[in-house]
Design a protein that fits this description.
mainly alpha, flat, 11 helices
Length: 237
């Protein structure tokens, strides 16, 4: 009985393959790597890092990014040739008019790239290299470069540790959210007072770093804020 069922199943599979023209599509298969489509800005970031490597390796015969010493030299070369985007904080020192001979050095230090920015560049280099050369870096190389970026090897790269300031919920963001709240009907509201309460919450979070959109999405899926209580039961006054 089982043999007959297996034979019928195999015959049905062969019939489907014949119907779907499997022989034709079998001949169309290639050895080409299939890559996930990426956005133009992402591709530009990959190409920027690959172009930097090509310029660096052109001056060194036989340079390979899989050689740790060469890879460290590449990132030192890359970081020392670029300025950071986060402006330096104002110096409130009372002795601004006095020249102690260290002003140029301090200014250069302030203009260096940040650790987070360089780590983003490293991730772009990893992805770009894998897409172009179809080879990936070993885990120990990835860990070494990440540790190097965040102060390893006696702070070899000498990067800034400052982080970008948090982007607050501005007036422009508020106007966009209000337009979506009252102009669109793609949220599932219990009643119109629901919109009013969300509007008041957005006013409450204005010029703060609160993520008001998370409240909207949670309410869309009717997620309770507290056990046995819905958001409608919370008194915002």
């Amino acid at each position: 009985m089982e043999d007959r069922l297996a034979a019928r199943r195999q015959a049905e599979q062969d019939r489907l393959r014949e119907k779907r023209n499997f022989r034709h599509w079998e001949s169309q298969a290639t050895d080409k790597v299939v890559l996930k489509p990426i956005k133009p800005k992402t591709e530009n970031g990959y190409n920027r890092m690959l172009d930097a490597w090509d310029k660096f390796s052109a001056r060194r015969r036989g340079a390979s990014p899989f050689h740790l010493k060469t890879l460290k030299q590449f990132f030192k070369w890359y970081c020392d040739g670029r300025k950071g985007r986060i402006p330096a904080e104002d110096d409130d020192d009372e002795d601004d008019d006095e020249d102690d001979g260290e002003g140029d050095e301090d200014a250069d230090k302030e203009l260096r790239m940040t650790q987070d920015s360089v780590y983003t560049c490293w991730k772009s280099f990893l992805s770009g290299w894998q897409r172009r050369e179809t080879t990936s870096f070993p885990k120990h190389i990835q860990t070494t470069i990440k540790t190097l970026i965040y102060g390893g090897d006696n702070n070899y790269l000498n990067l800034r540790t400052v982080q970008r300031p948090a982007r607050n919920f501005t007036v422009v963001d508020y106007k966009v959210c209000v337009g979506q709240l009252w102009g669109n009907d793609w949220h599932d509201f219990y009643c119109e007072s629901y919109r009013v309460r969300l509007h008041l919450m957005q006013l409450l979070h204005l010029n703060t770093s609160a993520r008001t959109a998370e409240y909207v999405m949670n309410l869309k899926y009717r997620v309770s804020c507290y056990p046995h209580h819905s958001f409608m039961d919370i008194d915002l006054s």
